[in-house]
């Protein structure tokens, strides 16, 4: 890559890293894997930079790369993944969880745990739709599914989040 | 009203999303270095694919498989990696260790191709201890899951590794080099040190250190991988030793044909497919050409056959030659990472490394079996590719590829060896 393009890429990567990490950390259960995902995404961006650097929104391109890499990895690792963590994780979330000092976990931890407990497609749909603020059509394109599927998956995800957070909210209120 | 409420994310989700994540465990420099490697790998894979595609197109345009008898197999040259320019050619014990600066790409490429821990296989250059002399290079690899698992290698132009320790054992590399190996385990660490003593004027010295928690060793590394790396650096890998003239031996003698290009019996593949899968296949033969040399040089061959219904056809490819491992891009997709490889012992000695890929979206499923070089023979690879079909999933029906067990493919490899 030519020097000026590489310098341009370096500036882009430094600026894009926090945003991509936020997306990856919200979309993956494992923070280490999330960082791996960001690194892989930016490496792919580097390889594509001579073609990409002129586009209107390199971040949209990077987000697409990240999401597709994530989906691809999820598919690739089907043999080692849990079939579903939904029920067990939600049961766990419904139990009171004291922290080291005996206090119950705060709301943010509850939300984080609830988000982590979602099946990966629901989590991804919720993150893209409501946190990345993409339209249903954009999410559908990114996830490679229909708009109807995005709507139902997002709705299921939000419902599961709310269900998981109800007991925690109740405990907060009674304290 | 309630529907609208349901569509809103729970309170606090946005603030969770916006929270500070702390410093990234990688830098922009890491990304740029990784990106460069990715570009390098992609170019290598594309080059291989183009070479193979050109061969196939040519074969199809001719209308028949290549007549290999008209083209005698050239003698094998030392081709330890795609970065052949970084490796001295010539004779035995004439790798890159006399000029370690040339080893850098060789090590990096070899590790990236030979170990399959994803990005864990990144090897970083670091300052060499002054005791190793001028020109020495040092590298280290930190494994992802444990900061205590580590691999390090030092290459020096001239350096006496000293006499082997009392508990060391020796491993013969590609003739005539020998490495002494010291292993110690105790306390909270495992440590293994490989040393190739310098032979001034002939080759330099190499020191490989593996460290990890007790009862384990750094992932992916074992005696064969370390000796493989040493062979590449010394130029003593089997492909670089003066190869004996290929001997044409009938398959019935169980000697095999993986070095004697053009002599592998294509009926072996069709017999095997028929016996294991109950399908008929007529393999075609194509040459593998060395893309890194100025003049096209044939370094291997592929026997290619397809079976099954047209809508879900499966391809079996058997590649053999002196460096068929370089053709990872032949059917592959450079963006795919293999699953963790496992090894399968072959009945007549040696071991096959098994790599598996699968791609759901494309509806393909691939397995590759790579046989490391054995004395007097080249490398061999068996690759299975499922055509269009159901994507892999937990409840999918069994496909022909899945019915192939390790033993079946090992039998095929044995037939060709």
Write the layout of secondary structure elements.
The complex is a heterodimer of chains A (175) and B (417).
Chain A lengths: L2 H25 L3 H22 L5 H19 L9 H9 L12 H11 L2 H12 L4 H8 L3 H28 L1
Helix pairs in contact in A: 1-2, 1-3, 2-3, 4-5, 4-8, 5-8, 6-8, 7-8
Chain B lengths: L1 H5 L6 H5 L10 H35 L40 H12 L9 E3 L10 E6 L7 E7 L12 E4 L5 E9 L2 E8 L8 E8 L10 H12 L31 H12 L6 E7 L6 E11 L6 E8 L20 E4 L5 E9 L4 E8 L7 E8 L13 H4 L2 H11 L1
Antiparallel strand pairs in B: 1-2, 2-3, 3-7, 4-5, 5-6, 6-7, 8-9, 9-10, 10-14, 11-12, 12-13, 13-14
Helix pairs in contact in B: 4-5, 6-8
Q: How do the helices and strands follow one another from N- to C-terminus of chain B?
A: HHHHEEEEEEEHHEEEEEEEHH
The CA-CA distance between the termini of chain A, in Å, is: 60 Å
Categorize the overall geometry of chain A: elongated
Distance between the termini of chain B: 73 Å
Mean pLDDT of chain A: 72
Structural class of chain A, by secondary structure, is mainly alpha
Quickly count the domains of chain B.
Answer: 2
CATH class membership of the largest domain in chain A: Mainly Alpha
Radius of gyration of chain A: 18 Å
Tell me the major beta sheet of chain B.
Answer: 7 strands, antiparallel
- How many beta-strand elements of chain B? 14
The average pLDDT value of chain B, as a whole number, equals 61
Largest interface: A-B, 48 and 43 residues
Order of strands in the sheet with the most strands of chain B?
Answer: 1-2-3-7-6-5-4
Low-confidence runs of at least 5 consecutive residues of chain A: 76-105
Tell me the fraction of residues in β-strands of chain A, as a range: under 5%
CATH superfamily of the largest domain in chain A: Winged helix-like DNA-binding domain superfamily/Winged helix DNA-binding domain
Mass-distribution shape of chain B: globular
**What is the strand content of chain B?**
15-25%
């Amino acid at each position: 890559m030519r020097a000026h393009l590489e310098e341009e890429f370096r500036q882009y990567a430094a600026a894009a890293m926090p945003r991509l990490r936020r997306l990856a950390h919200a979309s993956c259960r494992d923070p280490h894997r999330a960082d791996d995902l960001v690194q892989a995404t930016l490496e792919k961006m580097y390889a594509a930079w001579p073609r990409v650097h002129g586009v209107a929104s390199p971040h949209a391109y990077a987000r697409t790369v990240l999401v597709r890499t994530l989906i691809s990895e999820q598919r690739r690792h089907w043999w080692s993944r849990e079939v579903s963590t939904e029920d067990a994780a939600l049961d766990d979330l419904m139990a009171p969880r004291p922290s080291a000092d005996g206090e119950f976990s705060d709301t943010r931890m509850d939300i984080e745990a609830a988000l982590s407990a979602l099946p990966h497609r629901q989590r991804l749909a919720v993150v893209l739709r409501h946190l990345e603020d993409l339209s249903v059509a954009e999410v559908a394109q990114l996830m490679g599914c229909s708009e109807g599927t995005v709507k139902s998956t997002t709705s299921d995800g939000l419902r599961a989040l709310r269900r998981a957070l109800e007991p925690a909210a109740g405990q907060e209120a009674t304290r | 009203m309630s529907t609208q409420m349901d569509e809103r994310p729970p309170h606090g989700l946005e603030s969770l999303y916006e929270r500070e994540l702390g410093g990234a465990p990688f830098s922009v420099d890491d990304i740029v270095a990784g990106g460069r490697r990715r570009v390098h790998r992609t170019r290598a894979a594309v080059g291989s694919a183009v070479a193979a595609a050109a061969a196939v197109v040519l074969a199809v345009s001719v209308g028949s498989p290549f007549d290999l008898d008209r083209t005698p197999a050239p003698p094998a040259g030392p081709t330890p990696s795609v970065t052949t320019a970084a490796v001295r050619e010539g004779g035995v014990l004439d790798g890159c260790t006399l000029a370690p600066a040339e080893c850098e790409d060789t090590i990096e490429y070899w590790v990236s191709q030979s170990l399959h821990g994803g990005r864990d296989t990144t090897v970083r250059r670091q300052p060499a201890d002054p005791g190793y002399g001028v020109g020495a290079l040092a590298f280290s690899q930190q494994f992802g899951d444990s900061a205590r698992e580590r691999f390090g290698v030092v290459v020096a132009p001239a350096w006496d590794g000293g006499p082997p320790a009392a508990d060391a054992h020796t491993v013969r590399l590609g003739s005539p080099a020998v490495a002494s190996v010291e292993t110690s385990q105790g306390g909270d660490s495992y440590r293994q040190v490989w040393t190739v003593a310098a032979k001034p004027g002939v080759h330099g010295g190499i020191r490989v250190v593996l460290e990890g928690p007790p009862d384990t060793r750094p992932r992916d590394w074992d005696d064969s991988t370390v000796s493989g790396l040493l062979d590449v650096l010394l130029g003593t890998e089997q492909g670089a030793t003066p190869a004996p003239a290929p001997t044409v031996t009938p398959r019935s003698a169980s000697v095999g044909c993986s070095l004697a290009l053009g002599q592998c019996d294509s009926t072996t593949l069709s017999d095997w497919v028929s016996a294991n899968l109950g399908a008929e296949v007529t393999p075609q033969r194509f040459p593998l050409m060395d893309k890194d040399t100025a003049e096209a040089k044939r370094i291997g061959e592929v026997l290619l056959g397809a079976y099954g219904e047209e809508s879900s056809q499966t391809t079996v490819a058997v590649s053999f030659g002196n460096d068929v491992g370089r053709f990872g891009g032949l059917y592959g997709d450079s963006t795919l990472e293999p699953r963790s490889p496992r090894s399968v012992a072959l009945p007549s000695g040696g071991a096959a490394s098994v790599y598996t890929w699968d791609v759901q979206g494309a509806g393909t499923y691939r397995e590759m079996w790579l046989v490391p070089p054995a004395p007097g023979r080249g490398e061999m690879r068996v690759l299975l590719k499922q055509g269009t079909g159901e994507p892999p999933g937990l409840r999918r029906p069994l496909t022909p590829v899945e019915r192939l067990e390790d033993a079946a493919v090992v039998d095929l490899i044995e037939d060709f060896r």
